[in-house]
UniProtKB/TrEMBL annotation:
<keyword id="KW-0963">Cytoplasm</keyword>
<comment type="function">
    <text>Catalyzes the methylthiolation of N6-(dimethylallyl)adenosine (i(6)A), leading to the formation of 2-methylthio-N6-(dimethylallyl)adenosine (ms(2)i(6)A) at position 37 in tRNAs that read codons beginning with uridine.</text>
</comment>
<dbReference type="InterPro" id="IPR023404">
    <property type="entry name" value="rSAM_horseshoe"/>
</dbReference>
<feature type="domain" description="MTTase N-terminal">
    <location>
        <begin position="5"/>
        <end position="123"/>
    </location>
</feature>
<dbReference type="InterPro" id="IPR006463">
    <property type="entry name" value="MiaB_methiolase"/>
</dbReference>
<dbReference type="InterPro" id="IPR005839">
    <property type="entry name" value="Methylthiotransferase"/>
</dbReference>
<keyword id="KW-0408">Iron</keyword>
<feature type="binding site">
    <location>
        <position position="14"/>
    </location>
    <ligand>
        <name>[4Fe-4S] cluster 1</name>
    </ligand>
</feature>
<dbReference type="GO" id="GO:0051539">
    <property type="term" value="F:4 iron, 4 sulfur cluster binding"/>
</dbReference>
<comment type="similarity">
    <text>Belongs to the methylthiotransferase family. MiaB subfamily.</text>
</comment>
<feature type="binding site">
    <location>
        <position position="160"/>
    </location>
    <ligand>
        <name>[4Fe-4S] cluster 2</name>
    </ligand>
</feature>
<dbReference type="InterPro" id="IPR013848">
    <property type="entry name" value="Methylthiotransferase_N"/>
</dbReference>
<dbReference type="GO" id="GO:0005829">
    <property type="term" value="C:cytosol"/>
</dbReference>
<keyword id="KW-0479">Metal-binding</keyword>
<dbReference type="GO" id="GO:0046872">
    <property type="term" value="F:metal ion binding"/>
</dbReference>
<dbReference type="InterPro" id="IPR006638">
    <property type="entry name" value="Elp3/MiaA/NifB-like_rSAM"/>
</dbReference>
<keyword id="KW-0949">S-adenosyl-L-methionine</keyword>
Length: 497
């Protein structure tokens, strides 16, 4: 490519899509493209939509955005538009039919083909639609442009073997495929050598890891192995499934110092009847039993969840069982969703679809209950001294309030008084919590100790060389960083758990 062309990627959906977009960035930069400035809003030579098929009205939002780009493409000769991700895997040729100005459509299994497809569309002057039916290569073998210098996603598996009736992800992402433990640990060690101090293990059903390689304790072994990597300070994972959450995993969490006291455990419903209709292979008693065991082993653990309100057939009694479970579990926070039909899922054609106004009313009741619990649980943090890893972009009001923001070990968001000395994202500051709100904590007194870290050094190095082009690292060893904020700041829908 003689002249560098700019690109913009718009990402929708779960953490898996966010991480896939990092790979798409790495692929495009490896092919000679440069990232368009922030806020380009379509003013780029190539605009890529990495889509989600789970979020409500995902298709309408996509086609609306594509429609807004059509006149811009007419005015900009050579501009290309690509659509990938779960909606592309599902809709395929429909996208080009409804939006004939789209140049490339690619699926979840062949993201590595994007640069080739763009070039082929340019040369042949016609749309390229290529959807692989199964995974061509594990995505972590692709070059990656990580968004953060101090924290990183690390995929340990792709796909899902569950058959939840509300979820289309297994049909779009395929059956679970696990990476070899050695490849995962090699990637983590490479990230740490570049300055990363926090990693999040990522999978559609992360704690089912091992089912593809025939080792039922593979996930707990992986957590313990992470504990032996020098320089790795924080380990998280998302999202597990209650069915596969075994005692050896709880023990590994409790006994591995760098595995953080945080757990995201999707509930979906507290009603046994609804759970059966959802084809979730646990019941309320089993779920609360897991929560109880985790709290016994890790008393300060912050537990979050996903809940769907208004699933077909849900009665008032069923909903009350969800409220009961929420009160018993006392989640630090919950990502709550109103059920809406997803074409292609069994639930979309079930009898007993709930009227919108009933779903809305139940949703508001659930949110009110959970808000009260979140606030109560956060108030228990007042007076505690916490080590906060400074984050980038977490505090929208930090400039006006002269504060910084970061994440506690349990992933709670903390806003704290800016220390006198320089502090960089990735550094760790010790603070005392003085006030609690439902969704964040405040440390209003003077900051305590400031620990400058290799992660902070990595962030500073990136700031000092903003134009430096990252080199792709192959064979399962991507580059540093991951998008901050980490998982708790983004709803982990899209079949994660």
């Amino acid at each position: 490519m003689d002249v560098q062309r700019s690109y913009e990627i718009r990402t929708y959906g779960c953490q898996m899509n966010v991480h896939d977009s990092e790979r798409l960035s790495g692929l495009l930069e490896g092919a000679g493209y440069v990232r368009a400035p922030a806020g380009a809003d379509g003013d780029a030579d190539v605009v890529v939509f990495n889509t989600c098929a789970v979020r409500e009205n995902a298709d309408n939002k996509l086609y609306g955005n594509l429609g807004r780009l059509a006149p811009m493409k007419t005015r900009r000769p050579g501009m290309q538009i690509a659509v990938g991700g779960c909606l592309a895997q599902k809709d395929r040729d429909t996208i080009v039919t409804r939006a004939p100005w789209v140049d490339v459509v690619f699926g979840t299994h062949n993201i590595g083909k994007l640069p080739v497809l763009l070039e082929r569309a340019r040369v042949q002057e016609e749309a390229q639609v290529e959807i692989a039916e199964s995974l061509e290569a594990f995505p972590s073998t692709l070059p990656t442009r990580r968004e953060s210098a101090y924290a990183a996603w690390v995929s340990i598996s792709v796909g899902c073997n569950n058959t939840c009736t509300f979820c289309i992800v297994p049909a779009l992402r395929g059956k679970e495929k696990d990476r070899r433990p050695g490849d995962i640990l090699a990637e983590i060690e490479a990230l740490v050598s570049e300055g990363v101090s926090e990693i999040t293990l990522l999978g559609q059903n992360v704690n089912a890891y091992g089912s593809d390689i025939g080792d039922r304790e593979a996930f707990s072994k992986l957590l313990r192995a992470c504990g032996k990597i020098e320089g790795l300070e924080r380990v998280r994972f998302t999202s597990p499934h209650p069915r596969d959450f075994t005692d050896d995993v709880i023990a590994a969490m409790a006994e591995t110092p760098n595995v953080m006291p945080q757990l995201h455990m999707p509930l979906q419903s507290g009603s046994d009847t609804v759970l059966k209709a959802m084809r979730r292979s646990y019941r309320q008693e089993r779920f609360l039993g897991i929560i109880s065991k985790v709290r016994a082993a890790i008393p300060h653990a912050a537990i979050s969840t996903d809940i769907i309100v208004g699933f077909p057939g849900e009665t008032e009694e069923d909903f009350e069982q969800t409220l009961h479970t929420v009160r018993e579990a006392r989640f630090a926070n919950a990502f709550t969703f109103q059920y809406s039909k997803r074409p292609g899922t069994p639930a979309a054609t079930m009898d007993g679809q709930i009227p919108k106004e009933v779903v809305q009313a139940r949703y508001e009741r659930l949110v009110a209950v959970q808000e009260e619990i979140s606030w109560d649980e956060n108030k228990k943090q007042v007076g505690r001294t916490l080590d906060v890893m400074v984050a980038e972009g977490e505090g929208r009001k930090d400039g006006a309030t002269h504060r910084l923001s970061g994440r506690a070990p349990d992933n709670r968001l903390v806003h704290f008084t800016k220390p006198d000395q320089e502090v960089r994202p990735g550094d760790v500051v010790t603070v005392e919590i003085t006030y609690a709100a439902p969704h964040h904590l405040l440390a209003e007194g003077p900051a305590g100790a400031v620990r400058r870290t290799r992660a902070g050094d990595a962030w500073q190095k990136r700031q000092d060389a903003p134009a430096a082009k990252p080199a792709g690292v192959m064979l399962g060893l991507p580059q540093i960083g991951v998008p901050a904020p980490l998982p708790a700041a983004a709803a982990p829908a899209c079949g994660l758990g």
